[in-house]
Amino acid sequence: MSGPTVNSFFIGSSSGVTFSIILRPIDEETGKNTSPHPPVDTSKVTISLTRNLQLCLPNATDCCTTPLCVVETLQVLACRDSVMLAHLLIQAEIYANSSFTGNVSENATIIPNQVFQPLGSCPCDLTAGACDVRCCCDLECSPDLKQLFNESCFTGVFGGDVNPPFDQLCSSQSMEYTPDWFPFLCVQSSLNNTPFLGYFYHGSISTPKVPSFKIPLQTSPGRLFTGYRQGDPIITEENEYFTVPQKSLAGQCVGNAPVAYLQNFDVKCLTDLGSYKEGLPHDVRINSGTGDFIQQNVINRTITDTGKFITKSESLQSAKVPCQNVPFAENYTFIWKDKNIEQINVTVFHGSLCDGEILTQRFTVTFLNLESTDSEELFGNPGYQVGKPVRAANMNASDTFGSLNIWQTAGRGLCTSATSTPVLFGLDSLSGCILEVGINEDCSFLRANVIEKLNSLIQATHVGRRDNSSYSDLNDWVEIIRLDPSNSDANVSTGNLKGICPDIPANLNIRIIFADVGAVQGIPWQEILAVQISYSTVMWQFQCGLTCDNSVSFLPITASVQFIKVPAQPPVPMIRFQINYTEFDCNRNDVCWPQLFYPLTRFYTGEPYSQCLAKGLSLAFLVLLAAMMSNPWFSKVWNSYSP
Known about the structure:
Elements (H helix, E strand, L loop, with lengths): L4 E7 L6 E6 L7 E3 L8 E8 L18 E13 L2 E13 L47 H4 L35 H4 L60 E2 L5 E2 L10 E8 L13 E2 L5 E2 L2 E6 L7 E3 L10 E15 L2 E15 L2 E13 L22 E2 L9 E6 L10 E4 L6 E10 L4 H13 L2 E2 L2 E3 L12 E6 L17 E21 L2 E19 L10 E14 L10 H5 L28 H22 L1 H10 L2
Parallel strand pairs: 12-15, 14-16, 23-25, 24-26
Antiparallel strand pairs: 1-4, 2-5, 3-4, 5-6, 7-8, 9-16, 10-11, 13-16, 14-15, 17-22, 18-19, 18-21, 20-26, 22-23, 24-25
Family: Belongs to the tectonic family.
Pfam family, one: DUF1619_N
Subunit structure: Part of the tectonic-like complex (also named B9 complex).
């Protein structure tokens, strides 16, 4: 408690109770007892201070001469008929009030800068105003308390030894094994300059910055730009992303998705008249990659047959505007060369969207090489690019064209109405559909039906190594490794149980291994090295509702695609010497002998290379001179030429 007044309460019946105070005053005028005012079942005793608590100025009276002005011990007794019912012991330490205007001492406690302090003076002092057990450097621990744990004090830095000798110090003897070269590489330093310097310094707090779509590519517009690389977002004249609606990982369309350099896409987005939003205007100029800006060449066309784009909605028609002219499709063609964009051609198909109609908008982005005349050879790069379909071939058929697909479901997600979409290079994906199964379904027939559904996605025996693989050259293709599901009819029996089928191959796993084998005009040349197809089995069990008669259950079947990138060349295996003698491994040791001359290499950036080279040559000269002077023949030559 703080303040010049202390209140105490007596709980209970105060009838016939008298209160008295035993005071051991240092000064008789420091306090007085006021008569209690007992309410029902409660009595209150107030002890107030009458002295002025201002710190004494020169030639002043009625004040406190020291900061600790009064120390009092009071005992309050509650008695009834000379019988003590309760007592309260109050010890008061009353300090002078220093909040006044006057001349005070200029001496102040200097708090050292923690940047240059090796830890706090007592790291184990964790509780303010109390003694921490086993912390012998805690100044709040009295000698009596320290005797309780004097033999179990914390040791080391946490216990107060904030400047311990470190192992690299020349005078340190803490190392069990001291190598022969230790006197040559040890450190001569005071204990104030230790590795623990600044451990408790947290530095300044920076406010978080909200990321924006603007990228600080250059300080002044129109200056030279380093060009685009594959996957870099295309930038507009306003230093913002050039956006075209695309699909997110959740399958929904995102209107402000950036267009990535050399990555084609073809997406379809559903919208209606109420939720339609205008996209990026076509008069926006694009950064070509050299700091120049190019204008989009826009061609507007009108769609007369809107049946492929519009479906009727079942919701109520509530839009205020009955019809509106909106883009039905937008096709962007980027003509590129090296790291720059040379031209942009945009074809926009317009149509009329009315209330109660659902529009399927289509957006395509295609990159064409300026030096390529074949429309199929989009990049001039024989390797695969991210987002392009994986080429497949069926070498066992007269028509070698094949397909490698995954499901694209719609509506209820049933396999009977599901369509397929090609596997896109570099994009891991997972798709599936639902198969209707009856309670009396034969397990063998169910397995065969599921395998047939999954195999319909893989109409190929080989996959193209490159995007321009020739059907006439078998070396351009990689044979698909198939791990067929095992037939468990012979060793698994469910008896006469209905609605239970074990080992159903409901999951198709496609693993594609690829590598970077080179680069064409700075664009990675990626090839497929191997393809494996396997199956994962599940136990299907019929799920009943209220009744199981004449009902149908569902079995989800999935197809997953995983792209695994490996090095083009296998890593060099470690020799036995490198495995056994780890002291030469720089990743597992503090001392790295292979990097002894690291300051003389181009990788060292602490000083200019010319200075490092000059210092290195000077050091080599001194070492060579010392070696020559230590040789016995040097003294003979020196004595022979000396007078």
